[in-house]
Design goal:
The chain is mainly alpha-helical and 262 residues long. It is built from 5 helices and 4 strands. The strands form 2 sheets. Strands 1-2 form a two-stranded antiparallel ribbon. Strands 3-4 form a two-stranded antiparallel ribbon. Helix 1 packs antiparallel against helix 2 and helix 1 packs antiparallel against helix 4. The longest helix is centred in the last third of the chain and has 61 residues. The two termini are 16 Å apart.
């Protein structure tokens, strides 16, 4: 009979209990690492969906698989948890590769010349980085927005917002006809381009973050998958021993002949 209790499970001996503790510790540490990874990804303006799918595949799915361990057939549940853990190893590797590739592609994207972002504010360059906000440079070829980026000087008071905060159209002389600012129509373009710019600025950091964190995450997932398989094998051997009339003796991978005979 199962005599040792670990996290609500009753196992046959201390060796099976030790295996359960290894898996549990790995799952808890993996959960903490994945949550940290998710938070940093979102803070660094990464796509929420990417991080959520990664978190779900690494934590939520195995959690759903481990639930039956507390109520269903133990052997079957242990095998199910192992399979989810093994799939998580492959899933994380695939998601990490795809996200990293997308981030590197974003770094190479010429957002300035892309569609709706053409003509909008860009980070100030050269001596313009010291330019005061809401002012021209010396030859009036550059104007600095309130939010710190720069636009071509001709964009100041041209009737179309080029700054993401629309500050290039503040306190301008009245304009008429088609040159009247249409902030409502431009709002979608401004917001979309601003998000693209922010994402590109953080893409390099995010790509390296995914690369660095993939190592520990992958190792923890492999550790969990291996020891969950070990627990499953222990259960199967004990079950076979019971059927053979040897009693419900707990077993592990490396059990010598003397202990089996005893």
């Amino acid at each position: 009979p199962r005599q040792v209790g670990v996290l609500g499970l009753k196992v046959a001996d201390a060796e099976e209990a030790a295996t359960v503790r290894k898996v549990s510790a790995a799952v808890l540490l993996l959960t903490a690492v994945l949550v940290l990874h998710f938070i940093v990804h979102v803070i660094e303006h990464g796509q929420f969906l990417h991080a959520f799918v990664h978190l779900a595949f690494g934590v939520l799915f195995p959690a759903l698989a481990i639930t039956p361990l507390l109520s269903g057939p133990l052997t079957r549940a242990a095998w199910g948890f192992h399979m989810w853990s093994a799939l998580s190893v492959l899933g994380h590797a695939l998601i990490a590769i795809l996200v990293t590739q997308q981030l590197w592609a974003l770094l190479e994207l010429e957002i300035v010349s892309a569609g709706r972002c053409q003509g909008l504010a860009t980070p100030c360059q050269g001596s313009d980085v010291d330019l005061e906000l809401l002012s021209f440079n010396g030859d009036r070829t550059t104007w600095r927005c309130q939010h710190g980026a720069c636009i071509d000087g001709s964009g100041r008071c041209d009737g179309l917002p080029n700054c993401f905060d629309e500050s290039d159209e503040w306190e301008c002389p009245a304009v008429i006809g088609e040159r009247r600012p249409n902030f409502a129509a431009m709002k979608e373009y401004l917001v979309d381009c601003h998000r693209q710019r922010e994402a590109q600025e953080h893409a390099g950091h995010l790509a390296w973050w995914w690369i660095i964190m993939s190592g520990p995450i992958e190792l923890l997932m492999i550790f969990t998958a291996y020891h969950s398989l070990e627990f499953y094998v222990q259960l199967r051997i004990r079950r076979l021993a019971t059927r053979a009339g040897a009693g419900s003796v707990g077993t592990v991978f490396e059990r010598n002949a003397d202990s089996i005979e005893g």
